[in-house]
Amino acid sequence: MIRKTPRRGVAHDSISSVATEIRSAMRGTLASWAGLVAEEHRLARPARDVSALSRYLCRHIEWLSRHPAAGELVDEISELTRKAHEVAYSERVRRVSLGRCPAPGCDGELVAQMRSRDDVTPSEIACSVSSQHAWPATSWARLARQVRGGQGGGA
Prior knowledge:
Layout: H1 10-13, H2 17-41, H3 50-59, H4 61-66, H5 70-88, E1 93-100, E2 109-115, E3 124-127, E4 134-136, H6 140-150
Antiparallel strand pairs: 1-2, 2-3, 3-4
């Protein structure tokens, strides 16, 4: 008899170790924030599962958004999202380092993330430090002039 479905564990073997690490980091981060909610509200903690933790945090998002550490939550989730996106789409993206970010007071490096035309995510130039410093492909000529201007007009 020919099997039409994979044996248990076969699909798991194809997941990269980096993806597994990021999923573990997501679970840990979400569990930590869910623990804060549970402790502050004297509630039961959800199952230590990414989906269950996410639903739990979404139910308490208004309270979390007013918490003094809300900025940390946003930063942690943003960083995990960025890392997960990089892993998920790493084979389709060509990265080229371009030098310093021209944003005033920023010490980040600019990286061009060039994707194929059929990719749903557009190509962009992004700063390694701030997600606020990003330029879509339609703005690259303007960015080049800005960077050259910041270097004293040199080529």
